[in-house]
Specification:
Blueprint lengths: L35 H5 L14 H13 L15 E6 L1 H12 L6 H22 L2 E3 L15 E3 L5 E8 L4 E5 L23 E6 L9
Parallel strand pairs: 1-6
Antiparallel strand pairs: 1-2, 3-4, 4-5
Helix pairs in contact: 2-4, 3-4
Length: 212
């Protein structure tokens, strides 16, 4: 099952994520320890009608931890652990649910339920971990130097940063599913949770650690 190329119209121009050996956080005062889990839940831990925030992601993390309390996904709630996450918005998960089930779901809760039914909690856990780059707080100021960098994720797999344009800027992340549409970083939603050791950048589609 594949996302049709016509969905590329949904792509929002973005700025690439940095990482790897050459990248480091920008110099600043001692970073804070507010976690990404706290950030994701900051607008209330409920579904809503805004498809461009992160309610599905927030609830997916909660669902994994409810089923598997010792899951490595719990690192997102430990703000003392440096990491960079690339966070799909609710629309990205809606597109993934359509791709896997060939149905377009009209609510965020239906999207998460459909994904859990389609692939199971273990697969959702692996997908979530594939969006987390542990050990580095990577901000957007270093990102455009990262063209061609392969980032190793908490899931164990890698994805590659492709800087398509430094002037726009326009940056794509290339995952392990060769047939899907790869996500772009969303320029207006970079450096989420800035000032803390856990930082996030929004992306337009869900990264895939394998051929889904």
């Amino acid at each position: 099952m594949r996302i049709r190329r016509t969905l590329s119209a949904l792509v929002v121009a973005g700025l690439a994520a940095g990482g790897g050996l050459a990248l480091a956080p920008a110099a600043s005062a001692a970073p804070g320890t507010s976690s990404l889990a706290a950030l994701l839940a900051s607008d209330g831990d409920t579904f809503d009608r805004n498809w461009y925030d992160f309610d599905v992601l927030d609830q997916a993390v909660a669902a994994v931890l409810a089923a598997k309390p010792t899951s490595p996904v719990a690192v997102l709630a430990d703000g003392t652990v440096p990491l960079t996450a690339f966070v799909p918005n609710d629309r990205a998960f809606q597109v993934l649910a359509w791709d896997l089930t060939h149905r377009w779901y009209g609510s965020e809760q239906q999207v998460l339920t459909a994904l859990a039914d389609a692939v199971g909690v273990d697969a959702i856990e692996q997908v979530l971990l594939y969006h987390v780059v542990p050990g580095s707080t990577i901000d957007s100021s270093a990102a455009l130097a990262s063209d061609g960098v392969a980032l190793t994720t908490a899931q164990g797999g890698t994805f590659t940063v492709d800087v398509l344009s430094k002037r726009l800027p326009l940056v794509q992340l290339r995952d392990q599913d060769k047939n899907d549409v790869n996500p772009f970083l969303i320029r207006r939603q970079l450096d989420l949770n800035a000032g803390n050791v856990q930082i996030a950048h929004a992306i337009t589609f869900v990264l895939r650690p394998a051929d889904l």
